[in-house]
Structures are given as C-alpha cells and as structure tokens.
Amino acid sequence: MKIYADNAATTKMSRSAIDAMIPYMENVFGNPSSLYTIGQEAKEALEDARERAAKCLGCEAREITFTSGGSEADNQAIISAARIGEKKGKKHIISTKFEHHAVLHTLKKLEMEGFEVTLLDVHENGVVTAEDVANAIRPDTCLVTIMFANNEIGTVMPIKKIGAVCREKGVFFHTDAVQAVGHMHINVQEMNIDMLSLSAHKFHGPKGSGILYAKKGIRLTNIIEGGAQEKGKRAGTENIPGIMGMVKALEDACASIDTYTQHLLPLRDKLIAGLSEIPHSILNGDRQQRVPGTVNFCFEGIEGESLLLLLDDKGISASSGSACTSGSLDPSHVLLAIGRPHEVAHGSLRLSLADDITEEEIDYLIKSTKEVVEYLRSMSPLWKDLDSGKRPHVI
Amino acid sequence: MALYSSKVMDHFRNPRNVGSLENPSGVGEVGNPVCGDIMKIYFQIENDVIVDVKFETFGCGSAIASSSMATELIKGKPLSEALELTNKAVAEALDGLPAHKMHCSVLAEEAIRAAIKDYYDKNNIPYDPADFPEPHDEEEGAEEEEESTCSGCGSKAK
Question: Residue B29 is nearest to which of A301, A341, A381, comparing CB atoms?
Fold first, then answer.
C-alpha cells in the first residue's frame, strides 16, 4: 500500500488545477505587461484570477498581491508593517515561539535592526490565546503576527478573537495561514485579519505561487525591486500559469471544505485513537482545536528519522520533528515550545492526510506505525531503561 | 532514499548483531537521550579476542547502520585491532555518511572504546588512559564546522 501522509509539507496537484494552468503555458503565454492581444489576454486572466481569489478570502481584488509563495508573503507582510511602524516610532512586534521560520527569521532580521520582538509562549495544547496577545500589546507595538494553524502539530489559533484584540488596540494583525487556507473557512473581514499569507501547494495547487492579502490602506514595502507589476509592490513578470492553477485550486478547496471536513474528521480521530493505543505515546496539540488533516505524536524511546525510513519502506510518506530530520542538532522548535522535552521531541511523527484517504488506509497507518515503533523500541537501550524502570517515563 | 548509500540502508534495514549478551566481558554506552542517540555495545572476550558482540541503539538511520557496521568490523578481531577502529573506517565501510551524520560513526567508535575500557577496568588490566578520551570530545569526523550547538547537552555539532 502506498500512502502519502505528508500533505502539510506539500500536496499532489489536482487535475483541475493542472488543467487550469496548461492554456497559459501553451496558448495564452503572453506577458501581461505587453499591449498586444496575447499579452492583454494574459492580463485579463490575471485580473480575473485576482477577483476570484478575493472572493474566496472575503476581500477586494486590489487587496491581493501575488507572490512566489507563503515565505515571500510572510516576509513582505512583516517588513511592511515594520516600516509603517517605525515611521511612527513603533518598533515592537508580537509573535509566538512556534511560528514558521519564514516569520521567525524575518523577525530576527528586524531585531538586528533595533526592533523589539516578543515571542509569546505557547500553551501545552499548542495554542496561544487572545488574552496572551492582549497582555503583550504595548503602546509601541506595530504588529502582531500569529499563525492561523501550526504546520507541525496542526493546532488552530483563535484568530478572530486575536484579530479583535488587535483592532481594538489599533495594531496591525498578520496571520501566516499557509496551513489553514483551503482547509478551513476563512473570511479576512469577519476574522479581523489585516494581512494574510497563503501558499498554493498546500491545497493541491502548484509550488511557487502564493498570495499576500493586505487590507487596503496598508502600504506594502517591496521585497523584490524591479518593474511595476502588482501595483509596483512585487516586481517580476507574473507567474500566470502558477496563479491560474493556484486560484483554481483555491476555489475548489474553498467550495469543498464542508464535505472535506465531514469525510476527514472521523478518519483523523480514528487515527488519533489508534496511535494513542501505543504505550507511552502522546498526541501533540489540542485534540479538537486542530486542522482536519494533521496528526502529530511523540513516542518515547525511539528516534523519528529511523521511524520515517521504516515507514517509507512500508510505503508511507510522513515527517518528523526530530533533530536528525530538522538538519540541526535540536529537535523541532514547535515541540519544544509546547513543552516536550528533547528526548521526547526526537521521537515525533507527523501524519498529514489528504481528503482522499480511506478507512482502510487509516488502519494501515495505525498498524504500520505500531509495528515500527515496537521494532525500534526492541533495539533501543533507552526504551530498555524506561521499560525496566531504570529511567522514569516522561510520557 | 538518496540521503544514504545503499550500504547504510542495508545495515539500517537488516542490522547485524542486534541485541544484548547475558554476561558480557565488557559493556560500553555512549550518547544521551537529549541529543537523540544512544549506543550500547556488549562484548564477549576470550583470549583478548572479541568472540561475540551485540549492540542496542536509540537513534537515526545512520546511527543504527554505524552500530551494525562497527560490530561487523570488530567481530572475531583481537582487542588491539578493535582499539584501532576509527569512525572514518566505519563511515568508509558504509560507503560514506552525509557530513551532518558523521557524528554517528564517532559514537560507534566511542562505544567500542568504552566497552574495551569497561573490560580492562573489570579485569584490572592496565592501559594507557590516552587511548580512552572522554566521549563527546572527539574532533574526528568533523567534515564541516557547523554553528549549531546542541542545547540539550551543550555539545558542539560535529
């Protein structure tokens, strides 16, 4: 059996998104900045796509900027708010300890420029509250940037409430919604969101396409300088095929959220229940307050990379927050932020499901994970010590 | 998987000499759970020859493969030869390891040394302490200097 269970990393493109791109590579390949027909056809398609994307997010077309993806959108949102803030002498930014690195590294850069950054602690259930945000806002705060849903553990933040707090205090609110768009109902106006980043390849669209929504009146700072594309705020010839594929995927995803959720929730919960049967395992993040497809567990006494390699041998593609898979010596900053000790965080597994997953596949995921965890524990001196009581269990 | 050589994957998938020994002549354990890898090596020694060797490892694919290969390389060998086994020899026997995984081969070398030292200590056999540096201080295997430091145990990346 082959199961791709790493949809939080990227998704398979949908047929309809691929089909939406092809005409813009084969036929309408013109540059939207050109004045002849084939260029203007591309321009029309671009502006039509902008309208349709805006409809999906509940905003106006002029509030949509097409980017190369979520990271660029995050960078631009944060830098723009910082530039607006510093003109008014406001150089304090609030975020959380478990943001994506596209946010954390941009904030690091601003810190080196003299900005002050408050990274909120994350509660053990993988959520920050509106109260946490309210308590951290200061007169010199220019931006609150908090992810909609966490990429590793899938927990969902109370975005509408956080947005309301920011509105009340007159602080810009940006959300990295890369893991949420297409998976949950989002309306930027109703949710008090000033800026939002999204990435097409997380909802069956193409890689290399994203959107920055910025409420009208927010003056964007260029990350890429050059021509006057995107109202002069994002230079470079527009990635028309990517945009067409993205917007088609976005429309499809937004239209099917209810059926998607209805199908996925019971299967996700079955997966959680099944993996919970493994002794000394723990679900990371709140059981309910999470995106429909993402499940993240820690298993004591084993290491995540060997778990992934053996699951791969069984046809399962998954990911882990262990140090060996993160490319550094530390395990995932997300798992550390929710209070998992290093030795437990090394044994993490993220399974992120697509909506075509079947019950039979869920059973196979559970069975395979149980087998691999048991096997790795059988050769683990750490597990032996835990099992014999020589070392106390942490979970 | 292109991350590892097929030899690494073979030793990871079918590790040789997994397990423990009932009354070992020597045991060596290195690494710690905070860093994400522990290797434990058991020896049976007769007439200064390693007649049997077993290992248990908590760690990534290359840690398991390095343990497996290291035990293969010293099984049936005199202690003097086992003492000369370097992490580089383990890595080479595996057709190489990615630079950031070289520390796994260092752990294997350290675990073997620790087991030999344990055997010497148990049997009051004199040895040169210089042959047994403190584990984790090894500089061998460092292909590239990395900036990261393990926040768990404070050891430098290798």
Answer: A381
